[in-house]
Amino acid sequence: ILALTAFLCGASAFAPTPLQNTQRFDTACNSLSVPGMWGAGLNFGKGDFAFYKSFDAFMKPFTPEDREAFPEIFNIPKGIYEVSLTRPLGIIFEEIEIGNGCYVQDFVEGGLAERQGKIQKGDILVGITAVKIVGAKYERRLIPARNFDFDTVVGAVGSNDQKWGCNDVILMFERPGETDPAAVKTFFDFFEPPFDNPWKQQQ
User: Where are the beta strands (DSSP E) in the chain?
Assistant: First the structure.
């Protein structure tokens, strides 16, 4: 059994999974009023979206018209919740299948996650903040994590380091049996990096 006690502090930057031909929520992304959600080249690391602090803060730059037109991305779906934890997290993750997805197998006794009381055993990790460095620039983004393997979760947690201005790790979990899979997929497609963005490229 693969298990991870998430108190990681060694990794300095997130190493993405290999490039995938991922479909994005293009209809919304091309129609939203606020451009530049994904910066590349000279724009990488700049702008309102370069450092993820919380869902509400990340979505704040968008207009009321955007919120009305695309409620599916401006509201966290039922059965999905966001939590902020400092390291060590106190979570023991286990892979759902070999190399595909992680869930909360247990907690470190007396650890932060257990004391906070929001996360439950069996909850599935579906989003996590990670830091990506390109040259002298960096970003922290919320990245869909449903298909992350054990090692990718390790890298993501560890990349949220204080030297990159990170005082916490933001995680999104799914409570099994309480979600609409289609609504969850649409929501997280919005956060998926474009295939040609630095977040999809190995460094």
Answer: 3-5, 80-85, 91-97, 100-107, 124-134, 137-144, 169-174
pLDDT in tens, 22-35: 444 444 455 676 66
pLDDT tens for each residue of 77-110: 999 999 999 999 999 999 999 999 999 999 999 9
Q: Chain-centre distance of CA 11, in angstroms?
A: 16
* φ, ψ for residue 134, nearest 5 deg: -130, 110
CA-CA-CA-CA torsion for 180, 182, 183, 186, nearest 10 degrees?
A: 160
Question: Which among 74, 17, 54 has a CA at the least distance from the CA of 140?
Answer: 54
Three-class SS of residue 126? Answer: strand
User: Does pTM top 0.90 for this prediction?
Assistant: no
The tokens for 12 are 């300095």
Helix, strand or coil, per DSSP, at residue 188: helix
d(CA 159, CA 104): 20
